[in-house]
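Hi everyone,

Forwarding the result from last night's run.
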Amino acid sequence: MQALVVRTYGTPASFAIEDLPIPEPGPGQLQIKVAAASLNPADLLMTAGTVREMVPLDFPFVPGTDVAGTVTKLGPGTDGFEVGEEVFGFGAPPSFASGVGIPAVTSGALAEYATFQAGPYLAKRPPKLSATTAAALPSTGMTGLAVLGRGQFRPGETVLVIGAPVGIGSVVVPLLARQCTVLATATAPDGNYVRSLGAADVIDYRESDPIEEVRRRHPEGVDAVVNLALTGEAVLAATTALRPGGRLLSTTPGTPTHPAVTTVMGTTDLHPGTMDALTAHVLDGTLPEPEIRTYLLSDAVRAYEDLAEGHTRGKLVVIVDAEPGPCG
């Protein structure tokens, strides 16, 4: 099969499309013929070696955690799925899955075939949910719903979302906007996109310091901040936009410790039914489909280069066109 292969820590320029054996599902696993797979910033952190102490990779490594495809084979003792079913969901490299204690392992979604662990991180894909949209949902959707659950947002609150155009923002902003007033940071070109998601006001962070601008517009402070972009000390600076007793929820790696800050990881905040809840939100229109840029598997290296160069709006999805493979 064709797969995107990483053979050493480095930049996407070192990635290559290669032939690899089709992975066989182990106990409790599914083999999936991949229809589409989406990219995430965490893929680049892992392949660059930035988080190698927490997530050491075994090479050759196939990136990709978010998938949509067709079940082609079941491993021993795998329940809840059947060959031929359309599915979508999330899986992590074995080192990550064992490190954080989640039952979600994959051989890598950027390939014609991949294995994934059966369980709450996978769900059946209904016909009305396209494979492309389904592949864009898992990581961003799990994290977005985790932010909403941990934030305990109340009707009428004012919430600042930092980095709103990114994939997680396409989940957080529209669902938050149903009950809260959402302020968002974005560049001018992304302003209309963020407003279409439900943001009531947009601050162009290239034109002014967004935290100072929030304090100018809301001298009493906002009720909550959702950080999807800042890292390190910049996260702590964002707490100064909070009213007394306010809270900040952050999804970025290495978020500093602070009494007002809660770090959120969708993979560890998963609840049964999360994937089905995401599907329901998309199908009933409460969650608009994210803006998606697509690539073929043959262009997967370029897709990761675009991600590394600062793509910030919506999701990048690789469409995989595999020949029919073995079933049963």
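Residues 120 and 272 are 6 Å apart (CA to CA).

Cheers,
N.
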